[in-house]
Amino acid sequence: MAPRALRRHHESHRTTHVGWLRAAVLGANDGLISTSSLVVGVAAAQSARDPILVAALAGLVAGALSMAAGEYVSVGSQADTEHADLDRERHELATMPEREREELAAIYVSRGLSPHLAGQVADQLMAHDALAAHAREELGLSETTRARPIQAALASASSFALGAAPPVLLVVFLPLPILNPALAGISLVLLSALGAVAAHLGGAAPIKGALRVTFWGAVAMACTALVGRLFGAAA
Question: Which is higher by pLDDT, 198 or 175?
Answer without folding.
Answer: 175
